[in-house]
Amino acid sequence: MASLRHALIRSFLIKRGPDETTKRLLTLSSALNSELRQKQIDLLSKYPGGCVDLEKNDKTGIAVLTLNNPTKKNALTGSMMIDFEKRVEDLESWEKGRGVIFKGSGNTFCSGADLNVARAVGEGKDSGHPSLMSSFMQNITSRFFNLPLITVALVEGAALGGGAELVTCCDFRVVSSSANIGFVQARMGLSPGWGGGVRLVNLLGRLKALQLLSSASIIKGFEAQEIGLADEIFGEFDDSLETATSFLTNYTKFAPDVIKAMKRVVINASRSDMQSVETLNTKETQIFQSLCGGLANLEALNKKSKF
Ligand SMILES: CC[C@@H](C(=O)O)C(=O)SCCNC(=O)CCNC(=O)[C@H](O)C(C)(C)COP(=O)(O)OP(=O)(O)OC[C@H]1O[C@@H](n2cnc3c(N)ncnc32)[C@H](O)[C@@H]1OP(=O)(O)O
């Protein structure tokens, strides 16, 4: 995909004046983007099930975003990925918003990609399906990460594979002591492909990220807190939503404009990081595409292992 893009761009650069070139490059880039988007939607909409719900409270400025696929421990189907994008779009323009709690239904966060989707995407390796799903999910999770709102992941039960990657796209993490967080991609013959590898290194540093990814170990709340992956822990008798709301309220006391300005200050200060994140994500997708649908991945899917 990238090499085709470069070849086309190079052909446009030849024998054209700078203004004409810029205009044509913009047109070309937008045509390529809409073609890519159509391919992503065509692929993901083939795998329906579950939904992503958004409840916004204009009075408090706090929204609750819920992954809702309880019979599969909130595994993400293709249509849920599309739904997720719509909810993020809604949050991007929420005037009265201050903060978001990101959670799963039924006391569990997310068991990763729906294994049926993971299999179908792997089997479509030759048509570039791993890269289509990866770039779609990286785009949404980056947009969520850069919302002008304070975001908290409420993590209980399982946060595995892609589910663990979603945990990293929030500003903060409030985690149950009994939660199971695992970047289990290696056990699946995969590497992270939803932007979670880049965010994990930024969050924990190179060494701890490498330890988590290469061991594929599953950690509980207190261990997550020890390494900096959890900001607050709650116990089995605590009301999880109440705990997350009370945590978030520490950061959402002021007017929406003020809160948004603070988040923008932080985003702006890391702008140089953000530009490189796009390039790094593209590389993450290439690495993911190289493993997805490979022997180790297909073997893991056939074993239907439970973690
Ligand atoms: C491409 C992205 C890739 C990545 O980057 O890593 C992925 O995310 S691949 C997916 C990685 N995740 C998994 O492989 C999770 C596998 N599931 C489990 O380990 C366990 O189910 C659990 C999440 C630890 C929960 O265990 P438990 O509480 O004992 O419940 P059950 O196992 O009985 O699960 C209930 C029900 O849910 C189905 N399920 C669970 N996860 C998925 C999933 N990711 N996709 C599809 N279905 C899932 C499970 O099969 C059970 O179904 P039934 O047997 O029909 O009741």
TrEMBL record:
Q: Tell whether Cytoplasm is among the UniProt keywords.
A: yes
Q: What is its EC number?
A: 4.1.1.94
| BP GO annotations | fatty acid beta-oxidation
Q: Which GO terms describe its cellular component?
A: cytosol
Reactions it catalyzes? (2S)-ethylmalonyl-CoA + H(+) = butanoyl-CoA + CO2; (2R)-ethylmalonyl-CoA + H(+) = butanoyl-CoA + CO2; (S)-methylmalonyl-CoA + H(+) = propanoyl-CoA + CO2
> What is a GO molecular function of this protein?
methyl/ethyl malonyl-CoA decarboxylase activity
Where does the protein end up? Cytoplasm, Cytosol
Full protein name:
Ethylmalonyl-CoA decarboxylase
Source organism (scientific name): Helobdella robusta
